[in-house]
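task queued by scheduler; priority normal; single chain, no ligands, no partner chains; default sampling; output format set to structure tokens
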Amino acid sequence: MATSDRPEPATIDIAEGEVTPLVPKAPAFLRQPLKAALIQIMSLFSFALTELSMRYIFLMNKDETLSQLLVLRCFLVVLMVLIMLNRNVKKEMFTIPPGCLTPLLFRVLQGTFSVFVMAYSVNTMPLVIVGLFVNLQPLLIVMLASVLLGERMHVVNVLALVITIVGVSLVVAGEAAEQVGAGPKASAGGVLLLFFSMCMVALGNIAMKQITSYDPRATSAWISVSITLVSALVMLAKFGRGGFTFILHLSASQFFVFCCAAFGQLFYAALRIYAMRYDQVSNLQIYAVLAPALMLLFDMALFDLNINPLIAWGLAIIVLGCSANSIFEFTSAKP
């Protein structure tokens, strides 16, 4: 396989000192930072499509529970994957490359667990606390990638990541200031559960790096199968068979929005794994933290969210951090 002739730049070790990877390192590959960045940014637009679609669905179906809405969305994801793979379903979904089974199983369980924890946290805790925990995930992922995958980052990448996370934190604080009111109070148990979920998400990103040789669409399908089954069990326990009848009352426009949410979920999960084929997990995290800023822009355009000084400063710092990282990566990459 072709390798780069460009000398390795000066690096720092996030974990300090020599690191012996605890899991096998991914095969050597030719880094393509521009391609990886574009794929990662495309995944963020897929994420935004999913979140906006689900927000609309929640507003239009206030009487339905999360488990009911997840059943239909994830079922549509599985159906889309089956249509895409067509005759190759058996080969792509059930032929798992050596070494991928354990990380794939972990990723499926982690994805299912995190979906329900995030839904619980958003409904029972202040959004500013949830947002700050979510925004700390990239730093945790970088540290775990150093320890578990033996990845190293240039000091410029690390500084740019820290700057960007500071900017996102300011945006989250600014959004919280715009939504002043008697919201839910944080509990010690809820904070611990959210922190545990954050650690699981970080490990899930490490697991994704180990399954890049497996079809990303199939990975998304397995996660959706798991969420569908768990949601269906919760729904049956709460409503019995009558829980499925809400599907019959959906209008054509609402069903179309469900399809958009499923489409976004499928490509968000798949594109993130594709991006890892062309760059380190660590280097991609600076683009991952753009998701809150992207959602903020959609909120301002569609839901009339006001910009206060905290949000303005946060957006400026995010642009600064991402620009510095991108300029460094693209100018130092081999032509």
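post-processing summary
- Residues 33-86+99-332 form one domain.
- The chain has one domain: 33-86+99-332.
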